[in-house]
Structure formats: structure tokens, C-alpha cells
UniProtKB/TrEMBL annotation, chain A:
Location relative to the cell: Endoplasmic reticulum; Golgi apparatus, cis-Golgi network
GO biological-process terms attached to the record: Golgi vesicle transport
Keyword list, A-Z: Endoplasmic reticulum, ER-Golgi transport, Golgi apparatus, Transport
Name of the protein in question: Trafficking protein particle complex subunit
Pfam families linked: TRAPP
Family, per entry: Belongs to the TRAPP small subunits family. BET3 subfamily.
Domain of life: Eukaryota
From TrEMBL, chain B:
Keywords, in A-Z order: Endoplasmic reticulum, ER-Golgi transport, Golgi apparatus, Transport
Pfam family membership, one: Sybindin
Record localization: Endoplasmic reticulum; Golgi apparatus, cis-Golgi network
PANTHER family found in the cross-reference section: TRAFFICKING PROTEIN PARTICLE COMPLEX SUBUNIT, TRAFFICKING PROTEIN PARTICLE COMPLEX SUBUNIT 1
Species in which this protein is naturally found: Sesamum angolense
Gene Ontology biological-process entries: endoplasmic reticulum to Golgi vesicle-mediated transport
Record-given protein name: Trafficking protein particle complex subunit
Amino acid sequence: MAPVAPKSGDAIFASVDRVNAELFTLTYGAIVRQLLTDLEEVEEVNKQLDQMGYNIGVRLVDEFLAKSNVSRCVDFRETAEVIAKVGFKMFLGVTASVTNWDAEGTTCSIILEDNPLVDFVELPDTCQGLYYCNILSGVIRGALEMVSMKTEVTWLRDMLRGDDVFELQVKLLKQVPEEYPYKDDE
Amino acid sequence: MQFFGGSEISPSPPAPAASGNNAHMLYIFNRNGVCLLYREWNRPLKTLSSQQDHKLMFGLLFSLKSLTAKMDPTSVEKGNLGVPQLPGQGCSFHSFRTNTYKLSFMETPSGIKIILVTHPRTSDLRDSLKYIYNLYVEYVVKNPLYSPGTPIRYELFNKAVDQYVRGLG
């Protein structure tokens, strides 16, 4: 039986339940504001957003695999393409692009021109150093860890800091294959 | 015990009527071997404690996966037997049939393994297993009170699975 081809991001995005974009943006903004009030330190907030993103990513990957029907990606290049084209489209409604591959094919940049999280947002002077969308880096890291890839995700360009696009650098640290979990003597 | 649905001893009879529980058991494991869910509908013979049973099932599938990947005549690159593989890599077996039952298996790239044991004349259950995976995502993964990697104890999920499996012919 021939494998079923993965549905394109558009098709899946059209078929999933959607929420009001403003509600989503305002909810996220409320979370960041609350974190800033509770933690006060911008670095702490960045870390917390990343951790929250990680917890989301760990669960999101199953939903992604179930709805998008993609089979195992052959290499990291394909993985990055799938994240940018299918993943971002499915969950945020925007398509990202992948560029800046390094020679070994383990590091790339995902470029987002449009980001629903930052609609209406302007960073005040008191929040310099805040990565407002840091939840996204956690989500990607968490999701990839559940498919056996340890990665490091950092922001290279951030529109809220004056750049023209959002650029996320995704670096594959290593692939961790599945080990037999039970000890042999049992 | 015949593996991989080879030649059948008896000629295939007409499909049985879809009523009652056609399935015997369902297992869901995660990548670390934790049995997330075990449902039993029709299992007259039980020889092992549930912990041993889960370990046996997980070990069986783990070994079968390596064996089938190793014996693949079409693949160019084969790992050594026993070397752990990435989930979803290599060829993946999806069912085996004996004269008394059929075991259908599905593994996702995130390491979730779904096993359904049914009567031997069941047709290909890959789409059903995918549907069960979708149920898992909706009722379990999306539940904020569920910690990933722990056994599932949600009545709603159990009921949804029971109902779906009951409808399988």
C-alpha cells in the first residue's frame, strides 16, 4: 500500500478548529505581561517562556503527527521544511521559510515575516532584552525532542527590536535513537 | 505460530457480523516502554502478571522492529541487529497473524506505539489505529492535567476507545 502523502499546511489549516486571532494575540500578551509582573527580571521571563513553549511542544508534536500524516523525515533539511511549511501553517496560520543552511546541514534559519503573536505589540524601554516570542523557540525545541532530535533554538532577528523579519536559528545538536528501556536481567 | 500473515491454514471465511467486541486487547506504549493504556475486552486466557505482560509485549515489538528492518531486502543501508533505531526509521511492520488472533501495530515518529489484538480475519487496521491515535491526541494530549509519560486514567478516553473499537468489523 503506497504511503499517504502528507497534506499541505493549507489543507490542514482549513480543516482544524480555529480561534479568533485577536483573542489569541491578547491572551498571549496577557501571559507575557503577567510573567513580567511576577518575575520582574527580563531574563527570567525569557527562560519561563521557553519552558512553557517546551511543555507545549512536547504535546503539540503528537497533534501535528496525527493531523498532518507526515512520515518520518529523511534528514534535518526535510524536518526544517516540514516545520516551516506545514507546522507553522497549521498552528499559526502563517507560512515560514527556511534559509541559511550551513555546510553540514545541521543549522538553518526559519524566517517569519508575519507573526500573529506580535500584532499590536510594541516593546517599552523597560523591557529591552525581552524575547517576546520566546515561546516559539521552546515549542520547536520540545517538539523536536519528542522525535529524537536535540536542538538549540535561538532568535537572530526580532521585529520588535527593529529588525525586518523574525529569524529563528535552529541547530541540531544530536539525534538520540530509542534504547531498549528495560534492563536485560529482568 | 505463523509470522507476517503468510499462507493461511484455513480458507478465509466470510467476514463476521460487526456486533459485540471483535477486539481482544489494546495497548498503548510510549517511547520509554511505559504502558500508557491497556484495555481488555475479550481475553479468556491470562498467564502473566500485567507488568510482565506489558514488558513482554513491548520487548516483542521492539525486537520485531529491529528484525524486520534488518531483513528488509529493499533497503540500502541496514543497521546492525540490536542497534537502536530512530522511531519510524527503516521499514516498519504493521501486523502479524496467527490462527487465533491478529496483532496490528502502529508507531508514530514521536514513539507512541498502538497495538490492537483482534480476531484473525480482521482486515487491515492501519486506518483504525490512526483514528485511535487521533483520539489519543484529542482526549489525552490536549488535556492540560495529563502529564506525558504517565498511564492514562481518563474515563472519557476509555469510553471513546471502547465505542470505536466496538464498531470495528
